[in-house]
Each structure stands twice: as C-alpha cells, then as structure tokens.
Amino acid sequence: MLSKVNTCALIGVEGFNVFVETDIAGGLPNFNLVGLAAPSVKEARERVRAAIKNSGFDFPARRITVNLAPADLRKDGSYFDLAIAAGILAATEQVPTGSLHDKVFVGELSLDGEVREIPGVMAMAAFLKKQCEGNKPLQLILPQGNAVEAALSGNVAVRGVANLKELVAYLRDELHLEEIKADPGTILAGEGERGQPDFKEVKGQLAAKRALEVAAAGGHNILLTGPPGTGKTMLARRIPSILPSMTLEEKLEVTKIHSVAGLLKKDKPLLTRRPFRAPHHSATMAGILGGGRNPQPGEVSLAHLGVLFLDEFPEYSREVLEGLRQPLEDGEVIITRAEIAVRYPSRFMLVASRNPCPCGYYQHPLRECKCSEMQIRRYRIKSSGPLMDRIDLHVEVPSLQYRDLEGEQEGESSASIRERVERARAIQRERFKDSGIDCNASMSHRHLQEFCPLDRETRGLLRRAFDSLAISMRAHDRIIKVARTIADLSGEKDISAAHVAEAIQYRSLDRKF
Q1: Which of the residues 162, 265, 380, 461 has the least number of beta carbons within 10 Å of its own beta carbon?
Q2: Residue-wise pLDDT tens digits, 189-248
C-alpha cells in the first residue's frame, strides 16, 4: 500500500512543503527513511514505532519505506513524526486514505503516543496562509499546545490533538475536533505597559534623554559614552517604553522569529512589546548573528523591530563587532552553509554603551585616569571606523552632581515622550508610504535627495562640518537623516540649519577625534 501525507518544514523563518510518501511492501521487516533527512529526523523511526504500538495500533512487520520529498532539501527537527505516523496508519488501512486530503500534519510524538509541542509553528502557519489565499483553507493538525499560536495567522483551519489516539479517532470520523480560533486584537489585551521601566525615574541627563528621543523617533542607532555609574544602562533599558507601538503585522513578524527560536511562552502566544535584547559581551559570533550546526536566529534577529543593547561595547570580540556591519546596513542576516543559505530579518535599533577608557575615568573632572595612552588606543580601535559610521548618534553621558539627584521632582514620563515619537513616526509612514521603508533611518541616498532638500544656509553649514570634521560620506548622509527626524519631532516640513546643527552635535566622536 502507498499513502501520501502533507507536512511542512522551515528554512530560516520561511516554510516549505514536504510530502511524506509511505510505501509498505513484502520482505524482511525494515524501516527506511529517505529524502535528505538529518539524524534528528531519522530518529523518528523509533519514536513512531513505539508511539503506534503503545497507542494500541498495529505496526506492520514488513518493509516500510518513507520518503520526505523534495529530496534535495535537507530536513531537520522533529516536525515530521505526526505525518509519518499518519502515513503508516493510512498505508496499512487503519485510517481512511481519503481523510488525509487537505490536511497538513506537524508535531513530535513521545513513545506513549502523546503529541508534543514544536517550535516554529507560527512561521509554518504563515506559510500555509499564503498558500491557500483565494482557495479553500487547509486544515493544520498539530499539538494542542501550539494551536492558539498557529491560529493567530488566520485563514488556516487549526485543530489541536493531544495524542495519536485522538488523531486516529478524528480521521475515522469517530471524534469531532473543534477548530481553534484566536483573535490577535484581544490576546494579552490589558497587559499594557505594566512593569516597564519609565524615563521619569531617571534623574538628570536631559541631553542624553533628548538624544534617545531623536533615536527612537527615527529608528537611529546610538552610542552612549560616559564614566561608570552615570546611567547609561538605565537609560538604554527604558528605550522600549518610548518606541512606537507595533502594528499587528509587526507583532506577528516578531512572534514568528521567536517561535522559530523556541522562545515563546505558553501563556504568551503573541508578543505585543518590541523586543529588547541585551546579550553578554562574551557572546559568540553565532550567538549574536545566528548560526550553529542547525542554523538558528541570533540576537540581531531576536531584536528585529526592537532594540539590541550592547553594554560594554568594546569588550565584544572584534569579529562580532565587525559582523554587525551587514545587518546594520541590509536589515537581514544570511547564514551560508554547504547545503543551504538561511535568511533571517534583522532590522533593529542598535544601542551601545561604553566607557571612555578601560578604567572609565579618562578626562573625568574629579577622578584620575589610570590607563596608559596605549591602553586607551587599544580600547578605542576595537570599534572600527566603518562600524562607528553606521551609528547615527554618538552621545556623551557625563557624571552627575549631587544637586541633580536630590531634587524630588520626577522627570518627563515615557508616555509623554512616546506621544511625540508616535507623531514623528506617523509623519514618516505617510512620507514613505510608496517607498517601501518605514522610518528615516532606512532612507537610502536616493530617498535623501527626494525627501531631504536643504536650503543654501543649511547646505553651507553641512559643508563646513564636512570639511572641518573630516567625516565620511556615510556619516554625512546620517547627519541628514537625523536632521530629518529632528524636523519631524518639531512638526516642520523642511530641514533647517538648526536641525542640522543639532544633528552634528550628536557626532561627538567625530568632533573629538
């Protein structure tokens, strides 16, 4: 007997169809699994055999061949267990073959027949949604624990099963499984901003707060430099509280990446807040950019549409820092292996912090720096010129005086800052609605010519800064982008000399060195 079952697999965060073809023939008992299957997939033979037997069904003592097509794409993971079991049961006529049509099976089996949760379900459901646009919705049969997550994508009939017995009863029409529905608009409604750090808790540092507001309004990368204990980390951790709220499409896009990485919590099938990732400086290249034997998304992808905070920036390995250049420029990471190239989105806002020197007190007004010139030089050259060019704002966070701390009046709240950021982002969405980008930081040189005209006075100021600071063309363009954001925050249509002057002020490293 021959059966064919539909399932799904992932390359990066994109799904692709896999067809499980099962043939049962006479001969010595054997179970062959072919179709460029990784070791984790070949182990399904033992899981499926035990699950079928322990669920009370017959496992054929014959020659079984299971082919995972297409055979030229590598399959990895435990997604295929449920489909293989369904194929064997259909080929041995223990379930009707016709019951498999218009159904896609994904899930891992335990030895007792329980159907266990798997990562990446939302990405699979999003792929199937595209496939059945304009057609009859497919049925996605998967573990109960993944059902709500998959249903969020819409246009796919999702049914969750707890074990193999339930699946067989459903395919035999002996059991009715309710279609799982999920409304993204109501999931986690009311969570709001509870427990999120607020800018009103930060004393002083008004200049740094202004720079962070500009960075959030335009999606710009920012570097905070200052001695220890001045509040750099405290400021950085409050940036998500002033970023604009995510649209439904953005929530699903972010959730899909975290689903693939296996980081979704059972009680939170949809991420509603922008991600904030803060990896330790000992993180490896694969940990930051993604990779591994079975490529997984790295921190730059987990921070997609959110914030990647790199504290103690120069302490990261030079290889890691230089590896950031591609995602900062292209908004994606491509991980190439001998058999496959995996693409992960990585449009994030980079927030980095560092001390002015290894001991942290270079040019401090009250404390003496103990570093030699060579130590300071080595510390600074860890961040190369091309990388620093890709950071739009370089901001100094000076040490505070006691009078800044003793005041009882709270600073401006994150909610009021976010209102201004939201207004600026709304202006940008309207400006770029036909351009394929969504914020000022994403503008190309062509966009600058179209959306950022400068009058004679403003152009003259920029020319003098270009000549005196010896800045690069990339830094020149980023000054204009930041000036465009400052103008948007002011609600002004045109960029003025004052906007450019403030943007130049945020290139503190260019001015100093």
Answers
A1: 265
A2: 445 555 688 898 888 888 999 999 999 999 999 999 999 988 899 999 999 999 999 988
Residue with tokens 């021959």: 2
- Domains of the chain by start residue, with CATH: 2-171 (3.30.230.10), 203-399+410-512 (3.40.50.300)
Instruction: Please tell me the distance from the alpha carbon of residue 286 to that of residue 290, in angstroms, as a whole number.
Output: 5
Provide Rg for the chain, Cα atoms.
28
At CA 206, angle to CA 204 and CA 212, rounded to 5? Answer: 125
Q: CB-based burial of residue 231 (10 Å sphere; 0-12 exposed, 13-18 middle, 19+ buried)?
A: buried
List pLDDT tens digits, range 308-336: 999 999 999 989 999 999 899 999 999 88
Choose among 202, 267, 257, 264: nearest CA to 235.
Answer: 202
Cis before 275 (ω within 30): no
Task: Find out whether 5 and 69 touch, Cβ atoms under 8 Å.
Answer: no
- pTM higher than 0.85, yes or no? yes
Pairing verdict, β 115-116 and 108-109 = antiparallel
DSSP-assigned letter for residue 383: S
Residue 301 Cα to chain centre, angstroms: 4
The answer to whether 170 and 149 are in contact (CB under 8 A) is: no
How far, in Å, CA of 320 to CA of 305, rounded?
20
Q: Which long-range contacts (CB under 8 A, 24 or more apart) does 90-95 make?
A: 90/3, 90/5, 90/22, 91/1, 91/2, 91/3, 91/22, 91/23, 91/24, 92/1, 92/24, 92/58, 92/60, 93/1, 94/57, 94/58, 94/168, 95/168, 95/171, 95/172
**Cβ(29)–Cβ(61) below 8 Å:** yes
